[in-house]
Amino acid sequence: MPMPTLRLISSLKSLAGVVLAMALSMPAMAQVSDLTTQYRNGDAAFRLGHMNAAFGIFTARCKEGSGYDCFRAGDMYRRAMGTEQDYVAAGEAYAAGCDLDYADACLALANMHFTGQGLAEDFPKARALYEDGCDLNDAVSCAVLGNMMYSGMGGGRDRIMGADLMRRSCLQEVEYACSQVRRYGLSNKGERSNTLRRGWWNGN
């Protein structure tokens, strides 16, 4: 029987390496598949205290285009739940959720830039993100945006619009807005801004 050539031996070794790599990747692939079948969603895993599983589902579904799951993944990055704490990754997840029109993600990212927690303090960027959340009908975002507009923080000052936003947020039982209305001595009635926007405050 002829001895195998060096080229044949090399080819067999390469094939063995490919097979081994496929075998090693199968458990990880199976694990992801198991997560989606074992738990209805990331919240189900979270409620059971299975943080690694919850994080895996949230991040996977964020990549599939779920703004809510991006927001939840961002929270877990920020709070070091199911993964190591990573403020940059948290910001990226929140940004993805905001881009998908999930208001809570816009608010969370705005808060990080407003406070400088984990990301650079940036009032103009925070204000723009609060505006995004407000346009998506989030009353808390509208309250903070109103305060920033009233005081001229992070951009131009517009006391009429700012006061209007805070009053309307207070009517939505946002305590922060009510405290600012009292602080500035504003009544619940006042001049309304005529600036048209698509947020919830366009109502009467």
What structural category arises from helix and sheet content?
mainly alpha
Major sheet size, sense and barrel closure: none
C-alpha Rg, in Å?
A: 25 Å
**Strand tally, please?**
0
Global shape: elongated
Uncertain stretches: 18-30, 193-198, 200-204
Percent range of helical residues: 55-70%
Give, in order, the helices and strands: HHHHHHHHHH
Q: Mean pLDDT, nearest integer?
A: 83
What would your notes on this structure say?
The chain is mostly helical and 204 residues long. Helix content is 68%, strand content 0%. It is built from 10 helices and no strands. It has helices at 6-38, 42-47, 51-63, 67-79, 87-99, 103-115, 123-135, 139-151, 159-171, 175-183. Helix 3 crosses helix 4 (67-79) and helix 7 crosses helix 8 (139-151). The longest helix has 33 residues, at 6-38. 40% of the residues are buried. Mean pLDDT is 83; it is low at 18-30, 193-198 and 200-204.
In short:
This protein has helices at residues 6-38, 42-47, 51-63, 67-79, 87-99, 103-115, 123-135, 139-151, 159-171, 175-183. By secondary structure, the protein is an all-alpha fold.
Record the SSE blueprint.
Blueprint: H1 6-38, H2 42-47, H3 51-63, H4 67-79, H5 87-99, H6 103-115, H7 123-135, H8 139-151, H9 159-171, H10 175-183
Helix pairs in contact: 3-4, 4-5, 5-6, 6-7, 7-8, 8-9, 9-10
Name the features.
204 residues, mainly alpha, elongated
